Amino acid sequence: MKKILSAFLLLCFTIAFSQEKKPMFWQDIQNFKKEDQQNPPPKDAILFLGSSSFTKWTDVADYFPTKTIINRGFGGSRLTDLNDFADDLLLPYQPKQIIIYCGENDFADNHKLKAKVVVNRFKSFYKKIRERFPNIEVDYISIKYSPSREVIWPQMKEANKKIAAFMEKEPNAEFIDVTKAMQDANGNVRKDIFVEDMLHFKPEGYQIWTKVMTPYMK
């Protein structure tokens, strides 16, 4: 009986330990894998990678009815997470274009984080994309200035500037600046396009992004 009890406790410990070791967003990645098994992803689609601004864009196909989009945004993700899960996010797909929205949460997790750290995180992920897809179009959507995160706008603005300069020098790459389109006539960020958390969008916010993004989409 003692042996059975010991074996049971060991099994429980092993399960608990394995669960503890799973990285953040592991389950999101498993969900993507399951979805890809059930519905094999189409070739030559536009692959969206990034954080909750993409995750919550569940009806993105309605905004771009003539495009084939694979949305692989997972909420709360940072550029560190895109790097950690790069193989899972890139290897299953054969896109003609990748569009990234990520970086906002990196600053939100650490308000003292320097812009150059986030820029280097993006460059690392960009390099991983190019190792897999050397010639496809790769675009980066500027970090948006969410009203709830005004305290870290300065670092975000610096990161946007540096990433824009980097992308300008890269072939088949664009920096898609959505910040100006999100301003009112006085140059202030429009709060009316955000839901109550002043972080995520109402449909009006996605309509603005759609208008800005459309000319860049293949």
Chart the SSEs and their pairings.
Blueprint: H1 2-21, H2 26-38, E1 46-50, H3 52-55, H4 60-63, E2 69-73, H5 79-84, H6 86-90, E3 97-101, H7 104-109, H8 115-132, E4 137-141, H9 153-169, E5 173-176, H10 203-213
Parallel strand pairs: 1-2, 1-3, 3-4, 4-5
Helix pairs in contact: 8-9
Structure description:
It holds the Pfam family Lipase_GDSL_2. Keywords: Signal. The chain has 10 helices and 5 strands; from the N terminus they run ααβααβααβααβαβα. The radius of gyration is 19 Å and the shape is globular. It is 48% helix and 11% strand. The model has no long low-confidence stretch (mean pLDDT 93).
Residues in β-strands, percent: 5-15%
Distance between the termini: 66 Å
Compute the number of strand runs: 5
CATH class: Alpha Beta
- Summarize the amount of helix as a percent range: 40-55%
| CATH architecture descriptor | 3-Layer(aba) Sandwich
- Helix and strand content put the structural class at alpha/beta
- The outline comes out as globular
The description of the largest β-sheet is: 5 strands, parallel
Number of domains: 1
Mean pLDDT: 93
Unreliable stretches covering 5 or more consecutive residues:
none
Strand order of the largest sheet: 2-1-3-4-5
CATH topology: Rossmann fold
What is the radius of gyration computed over CA atoms, rounded to a whole number of angstroms? 19 Å
Number of helices: 10
> Would you identify the CATH H-level superfamily?
SGNH hydrolase
